[in-house]
Specification:
This protein has 384 residues and is an alpha/beta fold. It contains twelve helices and 14 strands. Helix 5 links the parallel strand 3 and strand 4.
Length: 384
Amino acid sequence: MRKRASRGTPERSLSLERLKRPPSLLVQVEQALRQAIAEECFPNGKLPTEVELAEQLGVSRETVRLAAEALQRDGLVVKIRHRGTFLRPPTLGQIKAVEEKRKLVGYLQTDFLDAQGREEVANREISGRMLQGALEEAAQAGFRLVVQRTTNLEWRRAVRELADAGQVQGLICVSYHEDKLLRRLAGSGLPIVLLDEDTAVPGILTVRDDSFEGARRAIQYLAKLGHRRIAYAHWARADMNPSRPLGYRKGMRDASLYRRQQWEIATELTEAGGRRMVDRLLALRPCPTALYCFNNTLARIAIDELRRRGVRVPEDLSVLGAGGEEIAGLSCHQADWYQMGRSAMQLLLRTLAEPGQGAQRHLRLPHALRVGQTTGAPPSSATK
């Protein structure tokens, strides 16, 4: 008998979520057979006998029979007495659907969130140009892109959704990766190209700009102007684009310049992060005469903040960007981001057409130096 609530005390209602029942054996067998048909596991067009399927799947022969009848009702198979169960010849519409599926490739663009969940300064201009290049190359080859944006926090889920759905024949991942998941995908045989990223995972193709050489040449240029104290503002995500700080250090060594650890300033790619970076830069003693920034957007933020504080650019301090959005008058180096997108798609389509043919697996596109109005010789007081 149900116990009554005590007088004066309201009875609490119990609220539980409805349990989800696992699919029955019959549904699981039917799904397994549909998947096997979709993956062309029966090349001769004939299914194994009900007894053989029952043994392979670990179920009863009756369960297999009922599952096969469901497939027959859907027109996927036909049973012929005393001969077995056969795949039905595909209709013209089914052939077109398969061909369309084979002409789909995924394109996953990653945006980054800071510790407070706000989007960091994104190179939207870079990502837009790369996407345009990939789209045009795919269109010329008769392929369509399934384009999806995600964040670094949702990247794993987004990759799984695109890869596991089986709707795309290959995948381009832009600006982010995790080696653990890439190893699983490489083992699945799905062609993967990382765009604007690096990895050492075997079987994964990469296309990116030559950040190392671009940074080395940037420091070389500043050194020729006479700068001896050159700071570098790097993205605080140290695992992203490690080639650029290595290029900075190599450039300093090549120019026989003394490098101090505090001259490498880690920063978030946000307006607030840029302001804090300038705080640290101006507190250095002796103060650097040039600042090399991770990208053009960070350079713009730094220039605005420096001028707000009365620091003249480039008379008091030169600022050089490392690619990204187009900013009038900014000295920087830029890669051909549009061609990077095209190259990534070309590499993916070549792999789909000729799997295992040993195509070049890692492409690096060069940077070109553009001299603007934000760099010049260091102030005379700094050379004394």
